[in-house]
């Protein structure tokens, strides 16, 4: 009887161990739905991140969502990715470690949550997702909302930088005519009619795919388009060439990064983007407005 009990307990332990490992190995989808979030809301590894400004966050947010204001936290003084030590502390204090399933949402621009997503992946954490629906009435109807600031238990985030996901001015310059370059800014900026930099226009050979094409606007909360519709938008881009994405400062490009990566493209982001390129008189530009 004792032998039977020992065997039974051993098998039970092994079953739980295998089950636990399967859960840890399970990959989070790149874009998660409300239903997915409902199903996984009680997962102890789930970390919700609200990328809106703090004053908006304090007016109401998903329960247990930690606030990381996108514009303040995800750029340095030169509008580049912050230093590694800063990001390590930021993510550790947000309760994120290697086991975390991270879901990010924002105000409906999607670029702040996307920037956060891209930074996490660049730092070696692939288990991150963009919530398909932005903060608004749909989320309020489906989840508990609170005004209290959530303070998570600190975890230890260990960065493992993936240099393939980030491009520099030099690597982008060398890619002209060799790789596909995509400009995620609105058309007037691409055409050289407007600019946030000293120079106007775009990087030579760059194609214009505005990041706003990736989502639909709704009074209930903006939502990402279904993959079928997104595939139709990007159908003319060849998949046999690597893609470098840029915009004004690396946030709009990050939204294109999520979508194109999910569609099977090999993509990376030029972090300096137009704010760096457009202020450098030594690099080439094309200005269709002239």
UniProtKB/TrEMBL annotation:
Record carries keyword rRNA-binding: no
Pfam family, one: Rhodanese
MF annotations from Gene Ontology: thiosulfate-cyanide sulfurtransferase activity
Rhodanese domain location: 42-147, 175-286
The UniProt record lists the keyword Repeat: yes
Gene3D superfamilies with a match to the protein in the record: Rhodanese-like domain (3.40.250.10)
Record InterPro entries: Rhodanese-like_dom (IPR001763), Rhodanese-like_dom_sf (IPR036873), Thiosulfate_sulfurtransferase (IPR051126), Thiosulphate_STrfase_CS (IPR001307)
SMART domains: RHOD
Keyword vocabulary terms for this entry: Repeat, Transferase
Protein name (record): Sulfurtransferase
Organism: Halarcobacter ebronensis
Lineage summary: Bacteria, Pseudomonadati, Campylobacterota, Epsilonproteobacteria, Campylobacterales
